[in-house]
Amino acid sequence: MPIVHTVKWFQGYEGVRCLEKGGDSKRLLELIAKSLEEARTAPGPAAQRPAEAAPGAGSPKAPAPLWAWPSLTQRTKAKGRTIALVDADVDRMFTTKDLLEEQGYTVWRAMDMMQFFTFLTDDNIPDLIITDMQMPGGGHHLVQKARSDPRLRRVPIIVMTEMPIAHAVKWFQGYEGIRCLEKGGGAKQLLWLVAKCLKEAQASPSPPGPAAQGPAETPFVAEPPKTPDPLWAWHGEGHRAMAEGRTIALVDDDAELMAMTKDLLELQGYSVWRAADMIQFFTLLADDNIPDLIITDMQMPGGGHHLVQRARSDPRLRRVPIIVMTGMPIVHTVKWFQGYEGVRCLEKGGDSKRLLELIAKSLEEARDPPR
Questions:
Q1: Considering the entire predicted model, what is its pTM?
Q2: How many Cα atoms are found within 13 Å in the side-chain-facing hemisphere of 276?
């Protein structure tokens, strides 16, 4: 579980530290050495009870534990700062969001680059961006587009990566204000880097000159791609016109994921209504509330395949296209729907553009079915 939740179990106990699983071995060895050294130099054995101050000594000034972040000063600095998280891994994104909000930051989220630029507005510019290198579309494309956007040229970016740092940084040579951090490095390291990036951005009165920019030919602006990147070159007025008047039903028990998908679809111009499972979907369904398309989760309670089966036996829904979102491989999922027309499967964690393309294609085919 996140460190900020774990430490609450051990408040008041001396000699107890928490460390996230998945961190590097060096961090564990450092913590072992530090703990043993403190135990050796302590005046007495560590108490297995709430710590008490020595008589006349006042409150003990113990070294800051690994999880004691931030201080009251750091919390004050975090207030009013906004961080944008861009990651297709929903579980990791919410864990990081909880960690940052615990420090006092305001956080907004996007699942990929296209969704990030869809949500971005002039009154919603983040103070810092944290993005995943391996997300659909790639973190390097987000950096490239961000540095060609006047609103984001000065915004620091932290790129989380699974590849060795020595390899990851080669993607960002010549870009100012970009730092790379290996995934699994621990919460303290991320928080330290966030604070450092924000401090440096605040202390920089003007864009750095060419010498600081390295091999880049211009001080701050990365060369934009010569052709529109299809991952973010969406949506045109034609797509908006097509979406207007179309209603999509979202059926998913994951409330957070459903809320993010709803926001994305409404920004394209679709009307959206939601249900947490198949029973609620058919309860909300009415003759004047028939959706033009259904997006359902395969693994929700009751199963997406049961919803498809019942929808195709309902005269009102026989021609309504259905997109089934699944966490299992597509080749396994499609076997559940052989023989059903108008049903498509899409893996969870893909980019938003793929979902929007599939919606447009499904609606177009439903409008002009083959004779």
A1: 0.49
A2: 4
